Amino acid sequence: MLSKMNHRIYALPAVLFLLLSLIFISAGAFIQNDERAARISKAQSVAEQVKISLEVFSNERIKAVHNLMQNWPTFEPNQVDWFNAQALSLMGMQQGFSSLVFVDATGKIAWVTTPNTGIKTRIDNTLIGKPMEALGLNVSSLSEDLESTLLYSQEAEHHFIVVGRAISPQEPEHGYLIAGFDVQTILGVMLGELVGPQFNFQIHSDDATLFKSGEFADDGTIVSLAPFTFLERDFYLSMQSQLSPYNPGLLIILTGLLMSALVSYVLHKQLKGAVSLSLSQQRYLTASEASLDALLIYQPKDGDFSLVEANSYTRYLFRGACEALRSMTLAEQMRYLGLSHEFINTQNVYKDGVPYEAHIAIESTEISPEWIKVQVVKAGENIALTIRDVTERFRDQNDLKRSEEKYRRLVDGMHRHFVYTKTVEHNFIYVSAGIEKILGFSADDFCVNESRYVRQVPDETFQIRQTIARGEKPEPYIVHYQGKVGEPLALEFSDTPILDEEGRLVAVEGIARDVTKELALQEEVYFQANHDQLTGLFNRYAFDEKLREILNDTHRSNKQNASGKNVELAELEENHIGSRSGYNEVTFLNMPHAQHKQSVMCFIDMDRFKLVNDSCGHPAGDKLLKEISTIFRQYVNGQDLLARIGGDEFCIIFRHQSLDEVTKRLDKLLLAISNYRFVYDDKLFFVGASIGVIEINESTQSAEALIKAADNACYKAKHLGRNRYFVFHDNDSQMAIDDSENQVLHALHHALQNDGFELYSQAIMPLNVPNEDKAGHLQHYEILLRLNAREGGLISPGLFIPLAERHGLMNKVDLWVVDNTLKTLESNPAHIDNVGKVAINLSGITLGDEMALHKITQRMQSTSVPAEKICFEITETTAVTNLSAAKHFISTLRDLGCSFALDDFGAGMSSFTYLKHLDVDYVKIDGSFVRNIVHDPIDHATVTAINNIAHSMGKQTVAEFVVDNATAEVLRELKVDYGQGFALDKPKPLAHRVQWRVKLASA
User: Fold this and answer.
1) Are residues 862 and 984 in the same domain?
2) How many CB atoms are closer than 10 A to CB 928?
3) What is the radius of gyration, based on Cα positions, of the chain?
4) Could you tell me if 724 and 584 are in contact, meaning their C-beta atoms sit under 8 angstroms apart?
5) Does residue 738 sit within a domain?
6) Structural domain harbouring 658
7) Residues with Cβ < 8 Å from 621, sequence gap 6 or more?
8) pTM exceeds 0.85, yes or no
């Protein structure tokens, strides 16, 4: 029965509504269709007018551009001025041009003409000199048709059409003509004149909307024309006549529908009133029984409330106590459940009508819930209670609270770490308490003012945020902050994007840690890996890396500048001749390119460093290196490179400086080193620096070749006298010298294998023996060595001895000299009887070679030549530099009967201290003091001192470089024992001396 009544309530009003609506809709539709046809016709007519106007405008401007190219002058002396005049005239006669551009035959923009309107345009004079591509159009030089493109200018916020063509495809040397049009300005002016506000329209091209007015209504009245050409681009025009605000058809329909609905509603209400009460009762019962809450209705009774009705869930909720509660009043029920205090709240609801709600903990064991939610409302003259079991919810909340407290204790207790949450815009909204331990700021302060504390963000910040925006986890990154007390701190963040179910970014969470100490340690490790621990300078590894970077930069720079080198500079480099003088005596093989600044590398080897190291120990050597490095620092600037690459070897690269500028600085540097005195344990040392200089330019092949060449130049500086520099140039002269050295070195190897040396000798004459006694005096001479050249002649020891020392061959040469001297003497026993001493020179390499000592000892033990006839000469410098080895060498051979002479005595200026420690028989006074003894009182005093001290120690003296009789007389006056020099005897082959003495004896 109830179903039939519900059917009538809705069916009868619906039928009435449909019937009335059909009548009104039919009338309105007829009127609507008539008006739609009129709107389409009006829009079609206006659209055609707009199309024709735009085509006419376009044809006129394109024709004007063609005319300008056809009239282009062939022999105009200044095409830019002609173009500018014609362009300004054309723009004055025909509006719409935003710019006219002349591009020369090379494709570069030569001139831009724009109307003086003050309107921003994409093409202006700032493009002059740039390639044609800067216009957004690349025109083919062979095309006879205009080419065009559609561009958008961010600055002007307009679309522009750029058209252009070669002025004459047959004569590309005339260049190109490019015209620009501000499309939106043109359309705004023309459409404003042709189309009124009663039309909606839109023009677009290449998927770009160029002009639009109003919003189209999708009602089938939009007119779209076929594409037409405007300024060499396809344009699409859509137009729609606006709907009148008073649409009669729609008005009739709406009015009719409203009236139909009103009539049907009145009928529906009348039918519905009859069954509303029964439906309400049924809904209440259904909802009550389906509810998950216990629903109880109470009516007032004698100041209390008695239960009237309860749903079925009540029996489940109060199972076990339901029967006992049923007969009780509300006050008794609450006392039974231990909730007496809640009865007052129930009475207040009944009095005031204000609903009451509470969550209550149940301590009674009579019912199962531990927590219930109670809601009390007034229902007419009754009250209604709803009770819900929320025990599980409260248990979950308590578990969650305990979990959160545990999580917070863990997070806040992390050392040097903290967790954080950021918004999509990367603003911090939560950080854990660990931030305060790190930076000193509270979590809330950091969230609000984080940007104020940032000192440096990563360079790749934009890429990091893009990665997060894609929902991907970026690599950890470091942000530098300033702590509360001003100290710099570095924090490493590890972000994790948080996405919703649709994959959209909603937050960023992560963990951060304090990496300040780690970064400091990394920097310290990097510094130690790249710097010399003693001097703090770059080490060899870092120097090699920096040198390769400099070479790469030099090669790139010279490639870029190669095309700009002018003929004048080339001629200057070819013909430049110059000389220089100053503190250093430097051999210049060829002048550098004076006008082209490059970099210059200086290879520095400390002179007499080993003397300090061996005589005073390594701490003294370390102290010397530190002080020398301090001197070097004073002559370099921030862009130069200073490194220690070996024990006593340094390198300086003067960046972006010419060779002349560098040599001036080296003059000052060497002067400072020569004035420097090293004092250690009351001992005074003079040191020097031999410097090899080489220019780093486009011809430099590699770092290895550069260092090798600089090392060679450094060696040449040592060979020239030390404490100076030698400039290496990679040219024909230098190559010739290198080839010559290679030839000498080859001859040296050949001589060692095939006995290619020749022994010479020079007498050491007694100075204080009367002439009548000299004939019977035993000979004393020094063995000299010559090297036979393959093409004939002899090579001076001044050439091959330094090469032998440099290439580690000197010990082999010494052994050859010892062996062949003994062989010569062994084969001439008669000559031995006339010999007092035969002096053989030994090098510093041999002096420190235990194997060489062993071979010389064996040879002396096996020879028939008496050991007392042999005197070994060692230089003062090598003896003092390797003092312990020298003492061992001397004592070993002296035990066999050999004697020793200390050669070049006085050159080191530390001689007297060590003379008493060296068990030598002869002291050979360095020739630099002897040669000028007649004229130089200082040399005279020096020789006197050396002679007297040597005699006081029981040693005999030999003066070198006796160049004339006057020198010999002075030496006799000073009581020097022996003299050696061209004034006394000239070098001659040993074989001749031996044979001459043999013949003299037989005669």
Assistant:
1) yes
2) 14
3) 55
4) yes
5) no
6) 536-559+583-730
7) 609, 612, 613, 648
8) no
The answer to whether residues 617 and 763 belong to one domain is no
**Rounded to the nearest 5 degrees, what angle is found at the Cα of 643, between the Cα atoms of 641 and 648?**
145
| Sign of the Cα pseudo-torsion (827, 831, 835, 840, in order) | negative
**Torsional sign, CA 525, 527, 532, 534:** negative
* Distance between CA atoms of residues 35 and 37, nearest Å: 6
Q: What is the CATH number of the domain that holds 135?
A: 3.30.450.20
Q: What is the DSSP string of 479-506?
A: EEEE-TTS-EEEEEEEEEEEE-TTS-EE
Q: Are 817 and 840 in contact (CB under 8 A)?
A: yes
Does residue 641 sit in the same domain as residue 515? no
Same domain, 353 and 455: no
Crossing angle of helices 618-633/609-616, nearest 10°? 150
Give the tokens for residue 789.
């050249």
| Spatial CB neighbours of 703, under 8 Å, sequence gap ≥ 6 | 544, 547, 548, 551
Which residue type does 172 have? P
Q: Report the C-alpha gap between 258 and 252 in whole angstroms.
A: 10
What is the mean pLDDT of each successive set of 10 residues along the chain, which is 1003 residues long?
Answer: 63 82 81 80 86 87 87 78 84 84 87 75 80 84 80 80 87 86 83 77 86 82 87 87 74 82 80 63 67 83 86 77 80 83 86 88 77 86 86 78 66 75 92 87 91 91 92 93 90 93 90 88 78 86 85 71 45 35 32 55 87 79 90 89 89 90 91 88 83 83 81 81 82 51 78 86 88 68 86 74 79 93 91 92 85 92 93 79 80 93 71 72 90 90 91 92 92 94 91 68 42
**Contacting residues for 960 by C-beta, under 8 A, at least 6 apart:** 904, 924, 925, 926, 927, 930, 980, 981
How far is the C-alpha of 888 from the C-alpha of 828, rounded, in Å?
32
Q: What is the pLDDT of residue 262?
A: 85
Tell me if 498 sits within 8 A of 506, measured CB to CB: yes
List Cα–Cα distances, 500 to 6, 503, 506, 507, 872, in angstroms.
45, 5, 6, 9, 94
Among positive and negative, which fits the CA dihedral 272, 277, 280, 286? negative
Q: Examine the domain organization and report whether 368 and 449 are in the same domain.
A: no
Specify whether 823 is located in the same domain as 872: yes
Which of 179, 184, 163, 164 shows the shortest CA–CA distance to 119?
A: 184
**What total number of domains does the chain contain?**
5
Instruction: Give the number of C-alpha atoms closer than 13 A to the C-alpha of residue 417, restricted to the C-beta side.
Output: 10
Nearest to 183 by CA among 86, 96, 107, 279: 96
Task: Find where tokens 């024309």 sit.
Answer: 225
What CATH number is attached to the domain comprising 598? 3.30.70.270
944: part of which helix (H) or strand (E)? helix 937-952
Judge contact between 236 and 46, C-beta under 8 A. no
DSSP secondary-structure letter at 755? T
Examine the domain organization and report whether 712 and 782 are in the same domain.
no
Token pair for 679: 């004092």
Nearest to 653 by CA among 580, 561, 582, 549: 549
| pLDDT at residue 569, as a whole number | 36
In single-letter form, the type of residue at position 339 comes to: L
Q: What is the pLDDT of residue 685?
A: 81
Single residue among 730, 764, 789 that ends a domain in this structure: 730
CA 994, CA 831: separation in Å to the nearest integer? Answer: 6
Kind and range of the H or E element at 212? strand 208-213
- State phi, psi for 282 to the nearest 5 degrees: -65, -40
Length of the chain measured in residues:
1003
User: Residue 610: which of 682, 708, 704, 718 has the closest Cα?
Assistant: 718
Q: Which two tokens mark 848?
A: 């420190």
Residue 859's pLDDT is what? 93
Q: What are the backbone angles phi and psi of residue 116, rounded to the nearest 5°?
A: -85, 70
Does residue 977 sit in the same domain as residue 848?
Answer: yes
| Residue at which a domain ends, from 730, 760, 790 | 730
